[in-house]
Predict the structure.
Amino acid sequence: MQRLAIFDLDNTLVDRQGPLTDWVSEFSSQYALNDLDRADLLQLVHARVYPSAFEAIRAQYGLAPSAEALWRDYCVYMARSVTCPADVLEGLSTLRRTGWKVAIATNGTTEIQTAKVAMSGIVAHVDAVCASEAAGVRKPEVAMFEKAAATCGADIALGGWMIGDGVDTDIRGGRAAGLRTIWISGSRTWPGGEVAPDHVAPDVRQAIDLLLSTVS
Ligand SMILES: [Mg+2]
């Protein structure tokens, strides 16, 4: 099997949840939203945010700035706020040093995902970044994993690993693409079903250690 590791970005290599909750707090106080609105907003941006979501947010709360301006502020805030732990960056470097091709496959707009990868320093430690908007496909579509592999010069037909926190997007999708998988569980238990991950790791650093020790 070729040494190919494809990583998810949000809540795998970087913590999205913390910065997102902070952004909702700051946005809510800036625009004087009440507690109920604040809870609604968190729900709205929880999974994924696209520029169009700010049209809805602007209309719902009667905000003066344009949706475009609100989106831009959101991108700047999130890109500035996400961080990748030093031991994870080091792990990515160790993988590459030991012959692994390392790619990121992430669902989201190219603008914000690219900014997060750059600002967190991850960009210097991976071979390729594949964002769904630019790719024209998204996880769990098999084509997304094929593109991520191809962008770092690997052939998905020769196998590899998908590492991520998403049950459907990363693990079931990765398996459908013929990859072995490591599920980043946090404190969750695997929900079951026909497909199970090859390994479960509480965080991505431990997943990297698994790759380094499992595939020699
Ligand atoms: Mg994720």
